[in-house]
Amino acid sequence: MDQLTTTMRMTALKPTSGRRSRLSLFRLGFVGALLFSTVASGNMQLDRTQIVFETDGPGREDVIVRNTGEHPLYLKLEVLEVTAPGTEEEQREVVENPETIGLIASPTKLVIQPDRRRAIRLVNLRGHGEQERVYRVNVLPVAPPVDAEGIGVRILIAYQLLVFVRPVESRVQLDAERTPEGVRLRNNGNVNVLLRDVQHCPDAAADCSELRGMRLYPGNQRLLDAPAGGHVQFTAVANGRSRTHRY
């Protein structure tokens, strides 16, 4: 999936020798799914995790964050530059000065009180070029101040936003070839293509088996593994439109 979810545990330690309580922050790992946590206080919900800057849009997009927990939610934002997306050479680097790569997210730090909402604003600074641009934005829970009330054990979820900036003229071109191993795909357009509802259907059977969906960025090549015989079908979503393919 395009969104990565990070689970964090924050534990308040008991004061020792008259010292103030300190917080210990542990990164437990990544979960390849989009979660809306309701298991602990300080929970965060986002109204969306994929943002598209269209050529006829205003150049700014808002993401609404809600705190569904019982304690204030402390967040920070990180903008990541994405190069060679969808390839083995893909890099996602946190940028200290996001203006240099054409996307800013503000505010960079925010506090959301219980049962309240705040907006994260994303601004496209570079307009639209010949090729689709891809960014990611981390929305990260951080430890509250050591003197915050109600500190205990909490499990918080971090989200990663996927951001696309459409090219001036979008060109959708998904080329496919049926082979004994499956269907070989190549995105020869200049925007990403999302494949979903991917199935292999035997000729003499009514039941189709599901195959793994995927996203192809411009220039990406993939093989849809499928047994010989029958046909492969999927829905390709690109530039806000969908089309069913069968091979």
From TrEMBL:
Record-annotated Pili assembly chaperone N-terminal domain positions: 44-168
Top-rank lineage group of the source organism: Bacteria
Pfam families the record matches: PapD_N
GO BP of this protein: cell wall organization
GO cellular component: outer membrane-bounded periplasmic space
Signal sequence annotation: none
UniProt-listed PANTHER family: PILUS ASSEMBLY CHAPERONE, SLR1668 PROTEIN
Protein name, per record: Pili assembly chaperone N-terminal domain-containing protein
Originating organism: Abyssibacter profundi
